[in-house]
């Protein structure tokens, strides 16, 4: 519950004090995506065996992450990492990657 | 002008920040108009931070990276060079990619920070001014805790190879020159130390080499800790199966001294151990420049930071990354983590230059692959979020975990990880 409460607070601070060009939800996605790029490449453009995420369709990305999270989709590291991100965070990072050039 | 740069400058002007106050030249709409960031140390943390400040500001922030080495040599994957399945060139990456991003590369050593004047003095005598300083100095060894190693000659004989590069190559040469039937002994310091599973992976790689080339030889692990500190079940399985009869694990071996002439290691309680190749990872602390800068605040060894920004808790406008920080519980000193620190810090530095608070909800993760053979790999992973009440990073309950067993698929992923993180930090 605590995490759910936190998001509106962030948005509130954002609308009051942040310039429009740096809306916090845009930053949220950017920062979260950066935590993926060690393995998936800067801005989601991978150099090799690990899949690229840049330009991935948002709905597809969310589905895959939720399946990793629930255990429905097998994997090595992703089922373990997906469990660390909230539904809101998965939505935000999916939206950010969807806007990136593959 | 790139979109990111335009946006970043818009934010600056909305925040009422003029370029002159940030040390840039208002008339010149070139790099530096939005502030000057100096990064000390071009490892996993510093290189990543430099790149992300440059990239996220669209080049509006002037970024200088100070690094004495001509190329980046990765510690992760370097144990494979000791095993002989890879060459040092395969874990070496040039810094040219960062220059292409407009980052000023200064090949020099930072010798002093003046936090009042916001300047960094270099060994060459040059002085760099900064608005924000990012320190990612890595580690220095506490040779005073191992008196017999506290001289150059001894340090050439008893290697650490805990900073990849010439020491890695030299240790490989010692292993190649060793007679079959010899003993390779590896001393591990008490935690916390750089890369918790690294020594155990090293033992596996040396054993992999011995099994093929010198089957009568032994690997003796002399652990300063009371037990294996990372991936315990996976490593002990490898030592009792894959490397049965080669690897011997001895806990509670806190090193007190070394005789470099006879290659003998001495301990608090256990008996002396004499080796044919003695590899000592001495206890370490944050790199010397962090001590000089006054940001070493924990046990005279590590730098405490605000985990929202990685800014020092002691000195304003200095951000500290990587192995030199006082870690939060469950947060290893690793290259992957340093890269994650670099991104949180880069965002926080840009926010600070724009007069904004840091992101209140940073997320970090860790992924660490260890090679058991030349291709079979095991991992450990974790996810860390900021806890507002505890004011620190905590592991997210239910997340993270280990490989069930060593497997070649993760060997491929480990190399994909390496290629991606090197590109993420250095291009």
Question: Layout of SSEs?
Answer:
The complex is a heterodimer of chains A (102) and B (427).
Chain A: H1 2-17, H2 24-34, H3 37-40, H4 58-70, H5 78-82, H6 87-98
Helix pairs in contact in A: 2-6, 4-6
Chain B: H1 3-14, E1 36-40, H2 44-56, E2 62-66, E3 71-73, H3 79-83, E4 92-94, H4 96-100, E5 104-106, E6 110-114, E7 119-122, E8 127-129, E9 132-135, E10 139-141, H5 152-157, H6 166-177, E11 183-188, H7 198-213, E12 218-223, H8 232-240, E13 247-250, E14 255-259, E15 264-267, E16 273-274, E17 277-280, E18 284-286, H9 288-293, E19 305-306, E20 311-312, E21 318-320, H10 335-353, E22 363-371, E23 377-387, E24 392-395, E25 401-402, H11 408-426
Parallel strand pairs in B: 1-2, 1-9, 2-5, 9-21, 11-12, 11-17, 12-13
Antiparallel strand pairs in B: 3-4, 6-7, 7-8, 10-18, 14-15, 15-16, 19-20, 22-23, 23-24, 23-25
Helix pairs in contact in B: 2-10, 2-11
Structure description:
Chain A has 102 residues and is mainly alpha-helical. Chain A has 6 helices and no strands. The longest helix of chain A has 16 residues. In chain B, strands 5-2-1-9-21 form a 5-stranded parallel beta sheet, covered by helices on one side. Chain B has a 4-stranded parallel beta sheet with strand order 13-12-11-17, with helices on one face. Chain B contains 11 helices and 25 strands. Chain B has 427 residues and is an alpha/beta fold. About 3% of the residues of chain B have low confidence. In chain B, helix 2 runs parallel beside helix 10 and helix 2 packs across helix 11. The interface between A and B is large, with 36 and 54 residues.
